[in-house]
Specification:
With about 325 residues, this protein is mostly helical. It has two domains: about 5-185 and about 295-325, Rossmann fold; about 205-285, Tyrosyl-Transfer RNA Synthetase (Orthogonal Bundle). Helix content is about 55%, strand content about 10%. It has a three-stranded parallel beta sheet. Strand 4, helix 8 (about 150-165) and strand 5 form a beta-alpha-beta unit. The two termini are about 30 Å apart. It binds iron/sulfur cluster (SF4).
């Protein structure tokens, strides 16, 4: 059975973009592969943060993931800093990663261009990502298209390390991408990817009232000014959210009503709100139950971390031996 690894930052609330772009896929992959899912708090600290907030966010992320269907009996869910070998392997990989490769990473260039001063952690972030994956010898990584370049860098690191320290038989596998089937989820502004930092999200655990308050003013087809103007569903983010949440017959109905000016955008959004509630309300209810039973969350994270520490120890024993560090 293939082993997959995927991580998510404890960035506060899980939003609908995370849910459709990653978490639903995580849940679907459980059972098809040996799944290792990580709340990557070491990655989260490369930007300024409040320690007390980080604790809360890690917790809330675990609650959200479990409520959305990550099953501790079928996947290992854990917090990255509970397995300290992640940073040990990242340091080792830093010693075989050319700085030029890191400086060429698009995400680094974009973030560095906006920052007043750049910390080494931002540059070395993809090295830690490589360590996250390879600590478990994972051969499949569910990713969105924007993460493909980092995964390619992981393969470069693997090749260099294997050539230097395991030339006869490759110790580390070259991880392959498992592209997430859902297209990039745009934010409610219809302009940029849904992202907490852009303030254009709907929370996965939002109440129906909160969902409607955010959907109501959301961007639609910009050329549809009046209710009597026919719209173009494909250019409207609300239509794409329908495709993610509404049944196929509703999606067809939406496309027809929109392109024939058969209804207004508020009518369309009301139907979307109902579809979203149908899918998200049970998740919200499960999250509330988990908050009332914190021991269930603690147990899930502890058993995931114990399983991963054992795998990580085994990998690091072999790595140290091959590198003369034993
Ligand atoms: Fe978008 Fe629906 Fe309005 Fe068409 S009717 S522009 S799909 S919100």
């Amino acid at each position: 059975m293939a082993r997959i690894f995927s991580g998510i930052q404890p960035s506060g609330e899980l939003h609908v973009g995370n849910y459709l772009g990653a978490v639903k896929n995580w849940v679907a992959l459980q059972g098809t592969a040996e799944a290792i899912y990580c709340i990557v708090d070491y990655h989260a600290i490369i930007a300024a943060y409040e320690p007390a907030q980080l604790r809360i966010r890690r917790r809330e992320m675990a609650v959200g993931l479990l409520a959305a269907g990550v099953d501790p009996d079928r996947a290992s869910l854990f917090v990255q800093s509970d397995v300290p070998q992640h940073t040990e392997l990242a340091w080792i990989f830093n010693t075989v990663t050319p700085v030029g490769e890191l400086e060429r990473q698009t995400q680094f260039k974009e973030k560095a261009a906006r920052a007043e001063s750049v910390m080494a952690g931002l540059l070395n972030y993809p090295v830690l990502q490589a360590a996250d994956i390879l600590l478990y010898l994972a051969d499949r990584v569910p990713v969105g298209e924007d993460q493909i370049q980092h995964l390619e860098l992981s393969r470069v690191i693997v090749r260099r390390w294997n050539a230097l320290f395991s030339p006869e038989a490759d110790f580390f596998p070259e991880p392959q991408p498992l592209l997430t089937p859902t297209r990039r989820i745009m934010g409610l502004d219809g302009q940029a990817k849904m992202s907490k930092s852009m303030g254009n999200t709907i929370g996965m655990l939002d109440s129906p009232t909160e969902i409607w308050a955010k959907l109501r003013p959301a961007m639609t087809d910009p050329k549809r000014i009046r209710k009597t103007d026919p719209g173009t569903p494909e250019v409207c983010n609300i239509y794409h959210l329908h495709k993610a949440f509404s049944p196929p017959e509703t999606v067809e109905h939406v496309a027809r009503q929109c392109s024939t000016a058969g209804w207004g955008c508020i009518d369309c959004k009301k139907v979307l709100a109902e579809s979203m509630e149908t899918e998200l309300v049970p998740i919200r209810v499960r999250a509330e139950l988990l908050r009332e039973e914190p021991a269930r969350v603690d147990d899930a994270l502890a058993s995931g971390a114990a399983r991963c520490r054992a795998l990580a120890s085994e990998t690091m024993r072999s790595v140290r031996e091959r590198m003369g560090l034993d």
